[in-house]
Design a protein that fits this description.
Length: 390
């Protein structure tokens, strides 16, 4: 490989949320952190050069994006996914979770129902509850070691609750599904039939495995584009979360007006100057780096798969179609959620995300972030082998 993903970059002592806050988060100091979804790899050289160039300038005043920024972002989605946004559709926010919260306020009123599909990225639930909306859950169904959508339940819950908004996770975090075009079409048809707005979190869109292709929800049809907001960011793809820069595409003028009004009411205007430079550089020049990264991550998943088969066959590995997150089922050990967490944290010395963070459907599961050098993964799995004695 041209890029060295085996490099062990020391992140401790850098105010890293992932590494430097074990004590504050109730974890032992020696824990190996594989929880929050950022990567232990340096950003692409083209990004580091752009950041260094911007930093050396020495003036960090109010900054806005020009045409070359939009061209880089739009070009990435056009070439990678066949999605061609227009400049006026773009609204920049400091993060996708921030955008989800804005969308909840923009497209619903207090007391309105918002539907999600648990187990799902936990801020979905948080932004609904924090904004005094009603959470309605249409849980994913486990089938043959994977997850599918119960469309009858999905439509029934929408009708019974008079839901106004659907928060879609695509690709799905934590279960790793890359929804097919047919699945997205069917969800979209139901939402159209019952007048829902769809806010699609597509932050993991660049991480799909062979045989699976990501479909931008709004690209399916003009009708679905007219009811949707597409949330994207370079943060997962290029490890830029700390630079707080996301790109939200809303083609319908009225939905865009309502979303922008909420953004204005929050007092937010220009995004992070360094984040703009990093995003532009990543989308303009990061394709080769990403291709190699995805090959390396496939190797990490193969390493995990082989380790579990040989050492921990009772741990059921949900075969991912996308993301760099492993969804591991420990329920065969017959432990309560608290007992499992205690063994993971205090016996194995690992810092993972407990499954119940993603909803009660995650009971008995743990989410593991595999975006790390192979040596880190190997050390973590050696600790996880403690479970072979149970």
């Amino acid at each position: 490989m041209k890029y060295d993903f085996d490099e062990l970059v020391e992140r401790r002592g850098t105010d890293s949320l992932k590494y430097d806050f074990a004590k504050e988060r109730g974890r032992p100091d020696g824990s190996i952190p594989m929880w929050v979804a950022d990567m232990d790899f340096r950003a692409p050289p083209c990004v580091m050069e752009a950041v260094e160039r911007a930093a050396r300038h020495g003036i960090y005043g109010y900054t806005e994006a020009k045409e070359d920024y939009f061209d880089a972002v739009a070009g990435w989605f056009r070439s990678g996914f066949g999605y061609s946004p227009e400049p006026e559709w773009l609204i920049k926010t400091p993060g996708v979770v921030f955008a989800l919260a804005l969308a909840v306020r923009a497209f619903t009123e207090p007391g309105d129902a918002v539907i999600i599909q648990r187990p799902v990225y936990y801020p979905f639930s948080e932004v609904i509850a924090a904004n005094r909306r009603r959470l309605v859950n249409s849980p994913l169904t486990r089938e043959n070691g994977g997850y599918i959508i119960d469309f009858d339940d999905f439509e029934r819950k929408i009708v019974e609750s008079s839901a106004k908004l659907f928060l879609l996770c695509s690709p799905h975090n934590p279960v790793g599904r890359v929804w097919t075009r047919a699945e997205l079409e069917k969800m979209g048809e139901i939402c159209l039939r019952h007048g829902l707005v769809v806010v699609s979190d597509e932050i993991h869109c660049d991480f799909t495995f062979p045989g699976n292709a990501h479909t931008v929800f709004a690209s399916i049809s003009p009708e679905l584009a007219a009811i949707s907001a597409i949330c994207t960011a370079p943060s997962k793809t290029f490890n830029l979360a700390g630079l707080q820069n996301s790109n939200i595409f809303i083609s319908d003028p009225e939905l865009r007006r309502r979303f922008r009004a909420e953004l204005d009411s929050a007092g937010y205007s220009q995004t992070n100057a360094i984040g703009l430079a990093a995003c532009r550089a990543a989308y303009a020049g990061g394709r080769e780096w990403l291709d190699e990264l995805k090959e390396y991550l496939r190797g990490n998943f193969s390493f995990l798969r082989a380790f579990l088969a040989q050492n921990l066959p009772k741990v059921v590995f949900t075969e991912p179609e996308g993301t760099y997150l492993a969804w591991l089922d420990f329920s065969a050990f017959g432990l309560s959620g608290d007992e499992l967490d205690d063994l993971i944290v205090n016996r194995a010395g690992l810092w993972l995300d407990t499954g119940t963070m993603f909803g009660p459907e995650g009971e008995g599961f743990q989410r593991m972030n595999l975006a790390c050098p192979r040596a880190t993964l190997s050390a973590a799995l050696d600790r996880l082998a403690y479970f072979s004695s149970l």
